[in-house]
Amino acid sequence: MTYQTITTQSLEGVLTITLNRPEAYNALNTQLLSEVADVLDLADQDESIRVAVITGGPKVFAAGADIKEMAVLDAVGVMNDPRPKHWKRIYQFSKPLIGAVNGYALGGGCELVMHCDIVIAGDNALFGQPEINLGIIPGAGGTQRLIRTVGKPLAMKMVLSGEMIDAQTALQANLIAEVVIPERTIERAHQLANTIAKKPPIAVRLAKEALLKAFETDLESGLNIERKSFTMLAATEDRREGIAAFMEKRKPEFKGR
User: Fold this and answer.
1) Catalytic residue among 108, 109, 122, 142
2) Whether the Cβ atoms of residue 239 and residue 230 lie closer than 8 Å to each other
3) Is 35 a catalytic residue?
4) Residue of 133, 140, 119 lying closest to 55 (CA atoms)
5) Which percentage of the chain shows pLDDT scores above 70?
6) Phi, psi values for residue 177, rounded to 5°
7) Which of 121, 87, 111 is closest to 159 using CA atoms?
């Protein structure tokens, strides 16, 4: 399938999505969000895809929403905006989503970072929610996910001032997982994706689901979800294979069954 605002590549169980609007610093317009969501929907149903990596390339991740597109929307237009549905589809991707971030990840770009499960950033990366400078606030979960991720003091500072933070600050605040030199960002994301792609896919999905529930529910409910998933995995071939391979001192061959 041909896309207008992204490129895709699939290799050894890893799908790579590259945002491709260089003339707009990969600004997240409706078409781009729709195409990302479409690709992830297809990948969710494709058993050969086990992990997805999303990147903006070596120079910039995404500098925000498309301001020109936003400028023509009145209150009714914003109310009928299809983008929240696309964001929801991205969030509902059930397999691991790894972000590889170089350069700016601002506004919607920072919110896309927070939709990823693991983020690798170059030491040139800059993160921010500068919507306040336009008389608006984050609209794709920025106020809710940011405060849950980095805590109230830093989230308040970022959202109310519009100031950016660098990669090391983002790492210390738990917004991202690793910082590398920019030349290694995408390489490291793929290295991690390849490692995860070799793990038992059912267990990976259930582990992601259980971890995300920790943000959305109380401890007791989360523990119940964890236990149900743990019990469910006892019926899988992959669990039997994993245990057998450990006992026999060999590498397991997980098949997603």
Assistant:
1) 108
2) no
3) no
4) 119
5) 94
6) -100, -35
7) 111
The closest alpha carbon to 66, from 40, 90, 37, 33, belongs to 33
> What one-letter code names the amino acid at 7?
T
Catalytic residue among 65, 105, 193, 203: 65
Tell me if residue 220 is catalytic.
no
* Residue 108 falls in the annotated catalytic set: yes
- Least confident range of 93-107, 123-137, 239-253: 239-253
The model's pTM is 0.91
> What residue has token string 């896919």?
201
- Considering the candidates 111, 128, 155, 242, report the single residue annotated as catalytic: 111
For every residue of the chain, DSSP letters joined together read ---SSEEEEEETTEEEEEE--GGGTT-B-HHHHHHHHHHHHHHHH-TT--EEEEE--SS-SB--B-HHHHHT--HHHHHT-SHHHHHHHHHT--S-EEEEE-SEEETHHHHHHHHSSEEEEETT-EEE-GGGGGT----SSHHHHHHHHH-HHHHHHHHHH---EEHHHHHHTTS-SEEE-GGGHHHHHHHHHHHHHTS-HHHHHHHHHHHHHHHHS-HHHHHHHHHHHHHHHTT-HHHHHHHHHHHTTS-------
Active site residue 23: no
Provide the pLDDT for residue 81: 75
Q: According to the model, what pLDDT value does residue 244 have?
A: 84
pLDDT digits (tens, 9 = 90+) for 23-33: 999 999 999 99
Dihedral of the alpha carbons of 141, 144, 148, 152, in degrees to the nearest 10:
130
Check 131, 193, 197, 242 and give the catalytic one: 131
**Other CB atoms closer than 10 Å to residue 56's CB: what's the count?**
28
Task: Look at residue 70 in the predicted model and tell me its pLDDT.
Answer: 64
